[in-house]
# Entry
Amino acid sequence: LETGRRGVGKTAKMSDMPDFEPICEFEPRCVSAFNFFIVSTDAKIVISSAWRNLIHHGHMDLRGFATLLRSHGVRGDLVGCTRKSREDDEEGREPRWFQIRDWLREHRMPGQHERFCVLDDDPSAFGGNMSHGVQTSGGGLTMEDAERAIEILKP
# Structure
């Protein structure tokens, strides 16, 4: 799920202040597409967008974030969020893929087949490998995007 024009179609304003309070609106058509993907695949949700900073900065915990998603109609199990950007990455240039890769390495179960799908409009989230991802447009997640994501997670 992404801020602004990304993910399930939220619009968000984030001030330059460290304790920003996002104002969001979940687009029903995007939530429907996301739910279709989740229900069809039983995929688990890991936050890799800037929204993860609400957790990292202590504004809410993972359970609170899961409640926020459910209150906006999002189905599925929120199981984690990717790490903070590296301390030495002051300008935020670390590709999101590095954080996703690290989460996958840390949470992989022995013998588990690696199946995952990244949904993002930011090309840095894919590490140059679109076989595990769907790049969304600025309009949020569409039903076509969800169908492509379902294909990626098929065994």
Observations:
- The two ends are 24 Å apart (CA to CA).
